[in-house]
Design brief:
The complex is a heterotrimer. Chain B is built from nine helices and ten strands. By secondary structure, chain B is α/β, with parallel strands linked by helices. Chain C is α+β, with helices and mostly antiparallel strands. Helices cover 57% and strands 13% of the residues of chain C. The chains are: A mainly alpha, B alpha/beta, C alpha+beta.
C-alpha cells in the first residue's frame, strides 16, 4: 500500500501534474476569469512544446534560447485564433478552438513534415542543455519520495516547473485583483455592460487569450522537457478536457484552484492506476476478471475522470476553493 | 421642466434645437424586408431631458442601439458634440460621453456593488495591462474612485448594500445601481432605456428625482419610456416615433393633444386622453 | 471517354502525317528507346508497342512510330533541330506507367548523326487511371459520406436548436448504436443463413436492436440528467462540460467491455463491385447511401409536414413563444432527444458498415459533425444537411486532389469551416444575430 500511495504522491507533484497545472492556470485566465470558452488549450501546449523541441533539434539552439520562442509562438497562435473568432458567439468559439488545436496536431503528425516535426514519433534528443544544467546538489543522486526514487534530471525539471507555477500564479493574482482584472471579470459577467461603460472588450479578450495561451505554452514546454519527447500524441483533445476537469475541480476563477486541482487530480489518477494494477496482477487481492483485468485496467482512470466531472459539475460546481455565492460558472 | 431653450423651437419632427448635443441624419435600419428605423433628422438639446416615446415596435430601442453603437445602420450619420459617431463601436461611444443603460438591467451578478461602481469609472490607469500588476501605480486613483463610489451609493441609498453581490439585489435596487454606475464615468449624455420598466411605484418617485437631479448637474438625458407619468413629470421635450419614423415633437402637453400621436398609439380617429395634459 | 478521344485524335494525326508528308530517303533519324525496370529491381526490359509522337519546335507533328520488340522506334524527322518526343501512356502495357511530365523529352537532332531519346520507366504509379476518371467515384463517395454524417449531425443540430446544448456525448450515442448492432448480429449464429436473405434479416434485426439501444440511452439521459439540470437552472456551459465528462465515461465503459479491436458486422463481410455508370460501387456503399437518403427524407418529412415537426421547429426558433401557443416544450424536447438518439444510432450503423465498428468511432467523427453543423448554421437542421454534404465532399475531394496528403483530409474540412465562419459568421444557412 505504501508503494501505491507513493505512486500517487509522485503523480501529484510530478512533471505531468505541473504541465497540466500550467495549462490549467492558462485556461483559468481564459475561462475562469474572462469567460472565454477556449477548447483549444491543447493547441497552446503543443505550440509551446514544439517551440522548445524544434529549434533545438533542427537548428541546434540552446534550449534556454527557446524561452522567447515559446512566448512568441503562443502569442501568434492566440492572435490567429482570436482575431477571427473573438467576435463570434461563444458556441462557435468552442468549436473553432477545438478545430484549430486538431489542425495543429494533424499538421505535426503528418509524415510529410517529418523532417521538421518528427511526425508521429515526435522529437527526442533535445534536452541535453537541461541535463547539463542540473545543479551540483542534485548531481549523482536520486531523490527519494517515500518509496519512490526520482532521478536527478526529473527532480531538476520538477523544480523548474514548480518555480514557473509559482511565478505565473503570482502574476495572475496580481493581475486579477487590479482594475484590469476587474474589467476582465466584468466581461465574463456581461460583455455589453462592459462596453456600455467604455471598456474595449475585444482588446481585453485578446489580451486574456494571449496571456493564458503563453502559460499554456509553458505547460507544453515542461511536458516535453520532462518526458524528453515532443509528440502529437501528448496533445490530443483529451488534454483540453482534462485541463477543464482540473480547473473545475480546483475552483473556477480562483488562483489556488489550478494548483490544488492539478495535484489532487493527478494524485487520484496515479493512485487508482497503481491500486488497480495491484488488484489485477494475480497476487494478493484480486478483482473478478469480468470487471477488470490486467489488459484494461488502465482505462478505468477515464471512467473515473468522466464520472467525477459529471458529479462535480452537478453537485459542487464551485470546486474546492470556489464560493457558493459566486458558484454557478455561467450566467446564461 | 424649464421650457426656455425650447420656447422658439418649432413643434415639428426633426426640428433644430438652439444647442444640440446630438444630431442624427438619415438613419435607416431594416431587417430583411422590414424597415425598423427611418429617421431623416433628429436633434437633442444640450442639458435637457428629452423623452423618446412611441407604441411598441416603433423602433425606439433599435434607434437607441444604433446611436450607441450596439447595432449597425444601413445608412446614416450622427454627431455627438460635433464628433462623428457613425461606425463607432459601443465602447468608443461611451468614452465620448454617450453612456446608456439597458432595459433588462445588467448588474454584474458575481461582483459586489462596490466593484460594479468602480467599474463605471473611466481613466483608471490600473485598467491598463502594463500598470495592473503594480499596485503602487494605481492605488491612489483607486482610493479616489472608491470615495466617489461611496458618495454616489449614499446618494442613491445603496450604501448599505456596498459589499453585497450584484446578484442579490432586488429589481429596483438594480435599476438604481445601473444609474449610479453610469454616473461614475461622468458622462455628458445619459441615455436610459425604459428606466421605469418593472419598477414599483414607491421607487418610481425616487428614480424620477434622481433623473431630474442629473439635469441640474449639467448632464443631458435622453430616455425611452412607455410610462407617461414620467414623461409628463420630467420631460422638457418629447420626440414621438411610430413605424420607424419621427412623427411628432414638442413639449409634453402639446404631444398629449396631438391627433397624429393619438392615432399612432390607438389606431386612427380615436379620442383619448394619453395623460399628458398639463 | 477521354482516353478514346485522345486515341482517336492520335490516330487521325498519324493518318494525316502518313499521307500528308512523304518520307524522304535521307531524312534524319531519331531513335527512341523505351525500357522499364521491373518492380523489385533487375535488368532493364524493353517495352514493346509504345506509340511515339515527335513534334517540332512549333508543335507540329513531324513523325510517329511504335516501339518494336527491342523497345526501339526509329522515326524520320525532316530536318535537324530540336524536337519533342512523347510516348503515349495509354499504349503502355499493364503494370507500367509514367507520370505526367515524364512522358516527353526534348531531343536535338544533328545533321547526319540523328538523335536519341531514352525512356526508362519504373513501376506503375498508384493511379493508373487518370485523375479525371476517378472524379465521379470521388463525388459519389463524398456525397455518401456526407449523407452518413448528415444522419448523425441532424440529430445533433436538433438538440442544439431546441435546448441550446452542444452535446459532446453525441459521438457516444453513435458508438452505442454501432456496437450494440455488432453485438446483436453476433448473437444470430445461424451460420447456414449468413449470406443472402437470411443474413439480411439477421442484420436488420440486429440493427433494430442497436438503434433501440441508442434511443433508450438518449431518452434516459434526457429524463435522468438534462431535464433535472434544466429544472435546477444549471446553465448551458455547465451542461456542456457534463456532456464531455459523460462522453469520456461512456466511451471507456464501452472500451472496457467491448475491447479495442475494430470488428465488422458478421453478415456483411466481403463484397463484389456493381457497376453504376462510370462508378463501381459495392452493395455496401449503395446500401449505406440508400439508408441515409431514406432516413433523411423521413426526417425532412417529419419536420415539415407533421405537427410534431412543426412544434420542434417552433421550439428551436423561440422556446418561450412556443410554449405560449400551447406546445408542451418538455415533451417536445424529449422527442427530440429520442429522435436524435435514433438518428445517431442509425448513423452509427451505416458508419460501421462503411468503416469498422470500434469503441471510439463516435469520437473520431464528432469533430466533423460539429464542423458540419457549424458550417451549415448552428441550430438549423437543413443547415446540418448542407454542412454535412459539404464536409463529406470536402474530405473526399481533398484525398482525390492531394493523394499524398490523405492523412490531412480532416484538417482540410476543419479549415474550410473556419474560413466559412470568417466570412459568414452565422454559417451557410444560419440567421444573422440581431442585437437588442
Amino acid at each position: 500500500m505504501s508503494q501505491i500511495l507513493s505512486n500517487g504522491l509522485y503523480g501529484a507533484i510530478g512533471v505531468t501534474a505541473i504541465a497540466y497545472c500550467l495549462a490549467a492556470i492558462g485556461l483559468n485566465i481564459h475561462f475562469g476569469y474572462t469567460g472565454l470558452l477556449n477548447f483549444g488549450q491543447a493547441g497552446f501546449a503543443l505550440v509551446g512544446g514544439y517551440a522548445v523541441a524544434m529549434p533545438v533539434m533542427n537548428w541546434q539552439w540552446s534550449i534556454w534560447a527557446t524561452i522567447p520562442v515559446v512566448i512568441i509562438a503562443s502569442t501568434v497562435f492566440a492572435l490567429l485564433l482570436g482575431i477571427p473568432t473573438l467576435r463570434l458567439r461563444s458556441d462557435y468559439l468552442a468549436i473553432v478552438t477545438i478545430a484549430a488545436a486538431e489542425i495543429l496536431r494533424l499538421l505535426v503528425s503528418t509524415p510529410k513534415l517529418d523532417n521538421v516535426t518528427g511526425a508521429s514519433d515526435g522529437i527526442n534528443s533535445f534536452t541535453n542543455d537541461i541535463q547539463n544544467s542540473i545543479p551540483g546538489f542534485l548531481r549523482g543522486r536520486s531523490v527519494p519520495l517515500w518509496e519512490k526514487q526520482i532521478s536527478e534530471y526529473e527532480m531538476w525539471v520538477i523544480m523548474l516547473g514548480w518555480f514557473l507555477v509559482v511565478v505565473f500564479s503570482l502574476a495572475v493574482w496580481a493581475l486579477m485583483r487590479s482594475p484590469w482584472g476587474r474589467v476582465v471579470r466584468s466581461i465574463r459577467e456581461d460583455e455589453d455592460a462592459a462596453r456600455s461603460l467604455g471598456k474595449n472588450v475585444f482588446a481585453y479578450k485578446m489580451t486574456s487569450l494571449i496571456l493564458g495561451g503563453i502559460v499554456g505554452g509553458f505547460g507544453g514546454a515542461i511536458l516535453v522537457i520532462g518526458q524528453r519527447n515532443a509528440s502529437p500524441g501528448s496533445f490530443q483533445t483529451q488534454f483540453t478536457f482534462l485541463t477543464y476537469a482540473i480547473v473545475v475541480l480546483g475552483g473556477v476563477g480562483k488562483v489556488k484552484g489550478p494548483i490544488i486541482g492539478a495535484m489532487i487530480f493527478w494524485f487520484i489518477i496515479s493512485f487508482s492506476d497503481s491500486l488497480l494494477a495491484d488488484w489485477t496482477d494475480r497476487t494478493g487481492f484480486q478483482l473478478p476478471t469480468w470487471v477488470m483485468d490486467s489488459s484494461n485496467f488502465s482505462f478505468f482512470r477515464w471512467i473515473l475522470v468522466g464520472g467525477g466531472l459529471v458529479l462535480l459539475v452537478i453537485f459542487r460546481p464551485q470546486g474546492i476553493f470556489g464560493n457558493r455565492k459566486e458558484q454557478v460558472f455561467d450566467v446564461r | 421642466m424649464s421650457a426656455e431653450p425650447f420656447a422658439d423651437v418649432p413643434r415639428e419632427p426633426g426640428s433644430a434645437k438652439p444647442d444640440s448635443i446630438l444630431i442624427a441624419d438619415s438613419v435607416r435600419r431594416s431587417f430583411g424586408g422590414l424597415v425598423a428605423v427611418d429617421v431623416s433628422h433628429m436633434e437633442v438639446q444640450r442639458n435637457s431631458i428629452t423623452a423618446l416615446i412611441g407604441p411598441n415596435g416603433a423602433g425606439k430601442t433599435t434607434f437607441f442601439n444604433l446611436l450607441t453603437g450596439f447595432d449597425e445602420p444601413d445608412t446614416g450619420t450622427w454627431h455627438f458634440n460635433g464628433h462623428s459617431m457613425s461606425g463607432a463601436s459601443p465602447y468608443k461611444a461611451a468614452r465620448r460621453g454617450m453612456v446608456r443603460t439597458f432595459q433588462l438591467t445588467k448588474s454584474l451578478n458575481r461582483m459586489t456593488v462596490l466593484e460594479n461602481m468602480r467599474l463605471g469609472a473611466t481613466g483608471q490607469s490600473g485598467e491598463r495591462l502594463w500598470a495592473a500588476p503594480f499596485k503602487f501605480l494605481w492605488r491612489e486613483e483607486e482610493a479616489e474612485i472608491t470615495r466617489r463610489a461611496d458618495e454616489l451609493l449614499a446618494r442613491f441609498r445603496l450604501d448599505h448594500m456596498r459589499d453585497e453581490f450584484g446578484g442579490s439585489l432586488s429589481g429596483g435596487q438594480r435599476k438604481l445601481l445601473e444609474l449610479a454606475r453610469v454616473l461614475m464615468g461622468k458622462p455628458e449624455m445619459v441615455m436610459l432605456d425604459e428606466p421605469m420598466a418593472g419598477v414599483n411605484p414607491a421607487l418610481k418617485q425616487s428614480l424620477l428625482a434622481h433623473v431630474k437631479g442629473l439635469k441640474d448637474e449639467g448632464h443631458t438625458v435622453l430616455f425611452v419610456e412607455h410610462d407617461m407619468d414620467m414623461v409628463h413629470e420630467i420631460a422638457d421635450w418629447v420626440i414621438v416615433m411610430a413605424e420607424g419614423q419621427i412623427i411628432a415633437e414638442g413639449p409634453p402637453a402639446f404631444i398629449g393633444a396631438n391627433q397624429e400621436v393619438i392615432d399612432a398609439y390607438l389606431g386612427a380617429h380615436q379620442h383619448a386622453d394619453l395623460g399628458l395634459g398639463a | 471517354m477521354i482516353r478514346k478521344l485522345v486515341r482517336a485524335l492520335l490516330a487521325a494525326c498519324a493518318l494525316f502525317a502518313l499521307f500528308a508528308e512523304p518520307a524522304h530517303a535521307d531524312d534524319n533519324i531519331l531513335q527512341v528507346r523505351v525500357q522499364h525496370t521491373p518492380e523489385g529491381g533487375g535488368k532493364k526490359q524493353p517495352v514493346e508497342g509504345v506509340a511515339i509522337t515527335v513534334t517540332d519546335a512549333a508543335g507540329t507533328v513531324v513523325g510517329e512510330g511504335v516501339t518494336d520488340a527491342s523497345g526501339v522506334a526509329k522515326i524520320s524527322v525532316p530536318a535537324a533541330g530540336d524536337f519533342t518526343v512523347t510516348i503515349d501512356p495509354d499504349t503502355l502495357p499493364d503494370g507500367i506507367g509514367v507520370s505526367d511530365g515524364e512522358n516527353s523529352r526534348t531531343v536535338k537532332v544533328t545533321d547526319g548523326l540523328g538523335g536519341n531519346a531514352n525512356f526508362n520507366l519504373g513501376a506503375a504509379p498508384q493511379e493508373k487511371d487518370s485523375k479525371l476518371s476517378l472524379l465521379p467515384r470521388t463525388l459519389f463517395n463524398g456525397i455518401r459520406f456526407g449523407l452518413v454524417i448528415a444522419i448523425m449531425s441532424v440529430g445533433l443540430s436538433l438538440i442544439y436548436g431546441t435546448t441550446g446544448l452542444s452535446n459532446f456525448a453525441h459521438g457516444e450515442t453513435v458508438t452505442i448504436g454501432a456496437v450494440m448492432t455488432a453485438v446483436a448480429s453476433g448473437w444470430f449464429t445461424l451460420s447456414s443463413a449468413r449470406g443472402g436473405w437470411g443474413g439480411l434479416l439477421q442484420l436488420s434485426a440486429a440493427v433494430v436492436i442497436g438503434v433501440s439501444c441508442a434511443v433508450a440511452f438518449s431518452g434516459a439521459l434526457e429524463l435522468v440528467l438534462w431535464r433535472p439540470m434544466r429544472r435546477r437552472g444549471i446553465g448551458l456551459t455547465s451542461m456542456m462540460i457534463v456532456s464531455i465528462g459523460l462522453a469520456m465515461l461512456v466511451r471507456f465503459v464501452i472500451q472496457m467491455r467491448y475491447g479495442s479491436q475494430p470488428k465488422s458486422y458478421a453478415q456483411f463481410a466481403s463484397q463484389r463491385n456493381i457497376n453504376l455508370g462510370p462508378i463501381g460501387v459495392t452493395p455496401r456503399d449503395l446500401t449505406t447511401a440508400v439508408i441515409a437518403l431514406i432516413a433523411l427524407c423521413a426526417v425532412a418529412y417529419l419536420l415539415m409536414r407533421t405537427r410534431t415537426g412543426k412544434a420542434i421547429r417552433a421550439v428551436s426558433d423561440n422556446p418561450d413563444l412556443a410554449s405560449t401557443t400551447g406546445i408542451n416544450t418538455e415533451r417536445i424536447i424529449l422527442k427530440v432527444w429520442l429522435l436524435g438518439g435514433a438518428l445517431a444510432g442509425l448513423g452509427g450503423v451505416t458508419f460501421g458498415l462503411d468503416e469498422q465498428v470500434s469503441w471510439n468511432m463516435g469520437t473520431k467523427i464528432l469533430l466533423l459533425m460539429f464542423a458540419a453543423i457549424t458550417l451549415g448554421g448552428l441550430g438549423r437542421p437543413f443547415g446540418a444537411l448542407v454542412g454535412s454534404l459539404a464536409v463529406g465532399l470536402f474530405v473526399q475531394l481533398w484525398a482525390w486532389l492531394f493523394g499524398d496528403y490523405t492523412d490531412l483530409k480532416t484538417m482540410g474540412a476543419l479549415m474550410a469551416m473556419i474560413l466559412v465562419l470568417l466570412f459568414r459568421p452565422q454559417g451557410i444557412l444560419g440567421k444573422k444575430e440581431r442585437v437588442g
